[in-house]
Design brief:
The protein has 301 residues and is an alpha+beta fold. Helices cover 22% and strands 27% of the residues. The protein has a domain at 111-217 and 235-300. The radius of gyration is 18 Å and the shape is globular.
């Protein structure tokens, strides 16, 4: 995909005189894979200030590549706003909460290489064991840097696997202990069952598609806790509509799913932004004009 100007905020949390005693009490747990409190769980918040009051839907505990807790992603049920909240605001950490990777922002037109790298990070966070080699490789800064460089090289430069995400992931699978499959379908129900089935296990899904000429707007407003005046880019890349100009390919990673007001949403990792985004699954993939048959869904286990 063509490189674009990143307008999203880089998280450099340095709260001044901030309230740091938000207490999260679980109201409704959603078990996802190895996590007792997965994406979609509902929490009661005590001590939180606007726009986070009363109850919130948990969208992920976002961690850095080295595993350090970074921030939580919450959807206020009252305000219908997604809020990114630095970890230091909370009274205690919870090891039972589902973790997702803080996306690296891509350099140049390299989204698929970054998506492959993010997918492998997310497999590790999902507590995939396999041969143990993936966990070991991601445990050091050198290993993480080499994996990112290798993923970019494999997709864009290696003739035998160039532009084939499944082939590249299967090559990693020989080392890490997983096998991958690709689904292309015009049947939304088939795609939905596949994606939600894997996400329920805590396993990520690569989603690769052609984009149209324009981005769409996030289904929920986005903000940073205690920094409400700082703008967060609310644009999204989604699959193009039939009849729209094909403006190139884009690849991202679905990391989780949740229900809100009887609709299904996906927590997505997109390297055009340095924090996760949310898709309205129905509107994005089941719109009458969505070019669904162009979308590739790659899963590994």
């Amino acid at each position: 995909m063509k490189a674009l100007l990143i307008l999203s905020l880089f998280f450099s949390f340095n709260p001044v005189n901030a309230n740091t005693d938000i207490n999260m009490t679980i109201k409704e747990s959603v078990e996802v894979g190895a996590f007792k409190q997965g994406i979609g769980s509902i929490y009661h918040l005590v001590g939180a200030e606007a726009p986070l009051k009363k109850e919130a839907v948990f969208l992920g505990n976002v961690v850095r590549a080295n595993g350090e807790d970074f921030y939580k992603m919450l959807l206020s049920k009252e305000n219908k706003k997604i809020v990114f909240v630095e970890e230091s605001y909370f009274t205690r950490a919870s090891k039972s909460q589902q973790t997702i990777i803080d996306p690296y922002v891509q350099v140049g037109s390299t989204c698929t290489g970054y998506a492959i790298n993010g997918f492998l990070h997310q497999m590790n966070l999902a507590k995939f064991e396999g041969t143990g080699a993936l966990k070991e490789e991601l445990s050091t800064e050198e290993g993480r840097a080499q994996l990112l460089a290798h993923a970019i090289n494999e997709y864009y430069m290696t003739p035998s696997r160039k532009y084939s995400i499944r082939a590249i992931l299967n090559s990693y699978g020989k080392k890490y202990g997983f096998k991958c499959n690709l689904l292309k379908t015009s049947d939304y129900s088939e795609a939905k069952d596949l994606v939600l089935g894997h996400l329920k296990k805590g396993l990520p899904v690569v989603v690769s598609f052609n984009i149209g000429p324009k981005m769409v707007t996030s289904p929920f407003p986005l903000s940073i806790y205690q920094k409400e005046n700082e703008k967060v880019d609310e644009r999204l890349w989604i699959p193009r509509r039939i009849g729209e100009r094909n403006s190139g390919g884009h690849t991202i990673v679905a990391a989780g799913a949740f229900e809100f007001n009887s609709k299904t949403y996906l927590t997505m990792l997109d390297s055009d932004w340095n924090e996760p985004r949310v898709w309205d699954m129905e509107d994005t993939l089941n719109h009458p004009k969505t070019a669904l048959d162009e979308v590739e869904f790659i899963t590994c286990q």
